[in-house]
């Protein structure tokens, strides 16, 4: 966990800040960046093009201090354990992303 925090701090130092705060603003930014609709993001679709942005949105929301229960509610009353899985999956995805995409995600977390 300490290594992850160091890595995040290092990456965040290189980011252009994207100011978002509310869950709605975060979801809108994710939808725009990944070209999905809010309805798709909140759907039960397991297509990668939809599920991956959903996982990233859950990760950003959790990093902003929202509880897993609240995040689950935002995504259509999903169980908190589903949101924990989404965060874990997002962390793996972020490690494999290109720098520009990482910059976007970490910029949302500021």
Question: What is this structure's SSE topology?
Answer:
Layout: H1 2-12, H2 23-34, H3 38-42, H4 48-63, H5 68-74, H6 80-96, H7 99-109
Helix pairs in contact: 2-4, 4-6, 4-7, 5-6
Please give the largest β-sheet: none
Report the total helices: 7
Shape: globular
Number of strands: 0
Which consecutive residue ranges, at least 5 long each, have pLDDT under 50?
13-18
Based on CA atoms alone, the radius of gyration comes out at: 13 Å
**What is the rounded distance between the termini?**
18 Å
Helix and strand element order: HHHHHHH
Helicity, as a percent range: over 70%
Average per-residue pLDDT, rounded, comes to 86
Which features would summarize this protein structure in a list?
globular; 7 helices; 72% helix; mainly alpha
Account of the protein in words:
Helix 4 (48-63) crosses helix 7 (99-109) and helix 5 packs across helix 6 (80-96). This protein has seven helices and no strands. By secondary structure, the chain is mainly alpha-helical. The chain is globular, with a radius of gyration of 13 Å. The longest helix is centred in the last third of the chain and has 17 residues, at 80-96.
Give the structure's gist in a few sentences.
The chain has helices spanning 2-12, 23-34, 38-42, 48-63, 68-74, 80-96, 99-109. It has seven helices and no strands.
